[in-house]
Amino acid sequence: MRRGLLTFLSALAVMAAGPILLFLGAFLLTWKEYPVPATVSNNPALPRLIIDQVTLHSQSFGDRQAPVLLVLHDGPGQDYSQLLPLKALADRYRVVFYDQRGSGLSARVPSEKLTIQESLKELERVIEQVSPERPVSLFGHGWGGMLAAAYAGKTPEKIDQLILAEPGFLNTDMANRILPALSRTSAGFIWNTTLAWVRSLHIHGPDSDAPADYVYAQIYFQPRYHCTGQQPQNLPLQRSGFRAWKTITQSTFSKDNKIAIDFVQGLSKLKEPVLFLVSECNSLTGKDFQTRQMRLFPKAQMALVKGSGHAFFLDKPAESLKHIRSFLSKK
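Now predict its structure.
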C-alpha cells in the first residue's frame, strides 16, 4: 500500500515538474534583449503634439498654410509608420500624422481614458489645433477609417474630402459579418502568442506597458488581410499599444453585443463623394465587405488597388497614391 502511494506521488511530482521544466527551458532559450522604443514621455527628441494635456507622437509635412490632410492609423493600438508614404502629398497639402493616445509612441494614459468617445474627442481637438479656420481632408485606414466616418457624420461642415481605406465595421450588421472570422484562432497563433509572452518576460522597460505592447506587436498580424505568399514581413510598426487595443475595442460594444456608437450617424449630410480605397487580396474587409459599407453613404466611389492587401503602402505604394491623388484632384 505504502509503495503504491509513493509511486502515485512520484508520478504526480513528475507531471507537475514537466510544465515547470518546459517553461524554464523556454525562458532560458529566449534570454536576450527585446528592445521596445520609448514613447514621447521618455524620449524628448520625438516630435509631438499636446492635446488636452496628453502628449501625442506627431509629424507634419508640407507648407503650414496649405490645406490639411489628416491621417488616422489602423488599430486600435497601432501607429502611423506604414502610412508615411502619404507624405508624398505634401506638394499640395500639409500632411499631418499622429499616433493615437496609448498607441505607437504616444503617451500611455489611464485605461478609463481609452474609449471610443475619448478617441473621437481627441480627433476633434487635433483638428482644432492643426486646422482651426478651415475644413480638413481625412484619410482613415482600417480602425482609423471608422473614426474618420464617425467624425465626418458628427461634423460634416469640418470635412473637405474623406478617404476610407478598408475601414472596419461601421454598424452592428457589418460587425456581425466580420467578427466571427476575426475571432478564429489556430495552433500557430496560440504558439506565437505563447512564445511572445515568454520573450516579454525579459523586458523591463522603458515603461510598465512595454512587455504587453511587445506581445501585441508580435501577434496582431492577420494573414487574411494580405495577398497569399506576399504577406509583408517586418511591418514597420514602431510600437503597438496593447491596452489601447483591448480597452478601446471593449468600449466599442454595449453589454448586449451591439455597437455602442453609430459610426454612420449623420453621414447622410455629407455633400461630397467619399472614396473607398480597397485592396484585391483582403478577404476579410476587402472589396465585398466595403461594397456593402459604401451603401451607408449618400455618395461613394471605389478605387481597387490590384496586387495589394490591407497594407496598401507596403504592397503597392505608387498605385495607392495614384488613386488618392486622382480623387483629391477632382475638387
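Residues 117 and 261 are 8 Å apart (CA to CA).
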